[in-house]
Design goal:
alpha/beta; 356 residues; four-stranded antiparallel β-sheet; 12 helices; Aspartate Aminotransferase, domain 1; 38% helix
């Protein structure tokens, strides 16, 4: 670091995204992206008029996108906050509501960015251990005094808790905020957005990077009370008023409106996830009950780091988290059928090479 870096960032631990190498062609199953194209409505939204208007600033209030999201969830636009991907949305949540005496808690095995937000923004936090089977300890989160942040479904485990459990956590202590990160909710799960009417301390965060195949566009949003959204917008306008471009908002509006295509893509991913799950179990792998666009797998006698390295040598990228509770496991994004066939074939090659 340079001598100019502010001292408050001395303990900063930057997030490490899934690698994006360009040294050869890879089957990329390491970043929970998708090889499926976005809705055809997305291409249609990028009109000449839109491109010709790029000399003007976009709507800083992001109203076209907020209105589209609000229609989808049966809310009013003042209950929707829009951001440059769910990571930015979560960043604004941490900036607006956490810090000082406002501490947070989250699971010990979850999306690593939560810890990074805390170290960057100076937020005190506590990690609550998942149970031995990686399920969420709902009682512990209901009893916790800190604000709560949970990914549901969780990453990298792929497991989820039900709406009733989230309701119990939120209603146990109405004076704290409960943030539910639903990046993977569309893969066969029920959103906690249905609780917003009865839980004013609930914030639901979603992204279009996964199920709507828009990781390259980076569109996210939060659903919350009008008062919470107003606070988030005040912070945004004190830092980055124009956080979404006009093309990005047009893409988001188009994708949000094409629910038939969304369901078609999710059904394809779920079907492929089940096929790969069956294939890995037939090869003596253990897997969690994934509710996401990835699987989390291990095998007795197989070093997950070596498995990951062997896959990479064969042109397939997966994600290994070298931490005490996850180092035996590998997270593998669900791609197309051809991509997953390549993954299974590469796995067979690794097993044969290792004599397993």
């Amino acid at each position: 670091m340079s001598s100019f870096l502010n001292a408050r960032y001395a303990g900063m631990h930057p997030y490490v995204p899934g690698e994006q190498p360009h040294d050869r062609a890879y089957v990329k199953l390491n970043a929970n992206e998708t090889s499926l194209p976005p809705s055809p409505a997305v291409r249609a939204a990028l009109s000449d008029a839109l491109v010709n208007g790029l000399g003007r600033y976009a709507d800083s209030h992001c109203m076209p996108l907020r209105e589209a999201v609000a229609r989808h969830f049966g809310l009013t636009p003042d209950r929707v906050f829009a951001g440059n991907g769910s990571d930015e949305v979560l960043g604004f949540v941490f900036l607006a509501f956490f810090g000082g005496d406002a501490r947070v808690c989250f699971p010990d095995v979850t999306y690593g960015f939560y810890r990074d937000y805390c170290s960057t923004f100076g937020v005190g936090y506590r990690e609550i251990p998942l149970r031995d089977d990686f399920t969420l300890d709902v009682d512990a989160f209901a009893e916790a005094e800190e604000n709560v942040v949970i990914a549901n479904p969780n990453a990298p485990t792929g497991l989820c808790v039900g709406v009733d459990d989230v309701r119990r956590i939120a209603q146990a202590q109405p004076g704290r905020l409960v943030v539910v990160d639903e990046a993977y909710v569309d893969y066969g799960n029920r959103s906690c957005a249905c609780l917003l009417g009865e839980c004013p301390n609930l914030v639901v965060v979603q992204t279009m990077s996964k199920s709507r195949n828009l990781a390259g566009a980076h569109v996210g949003y939060a659903l919350a009370s009008a008062e919470v959204v107003s606070d988030l917008n005040d912070v945004k306008f004190s830092f980055d008023p124009f956080n979404l471009s006009a093309p990005t908002m047009a893409i988001g509006v188009a994708a949000m409106g094409d629910t038939d295509y969304l369901q078609e893509c999710c059904d394809r991913v779920i079907a492929e996830r089940e096929r790969v799950t069956d294939g890995l179990r037939a090869r003596d792998f253990e897997l969690t009950d994934s509710h996401t666009n990835f699987v989390f797998a291990r095998r007795d006698g197989l070093d997950a780091k070596a498995w990951n390295a062997g896959l990479r040598e064969r042109g397939v990228l997966a994600r290994h988290f070298d931490a005490p509770r996850t180092r035996d496991w590998l997270r593998v994004t669900i791609g197309t059928r051809d991509e997953m066939d390549a993954f299974l074939a590469a796995t067979d090659g690794v097993l044969a090479e290792l004599g397993l």
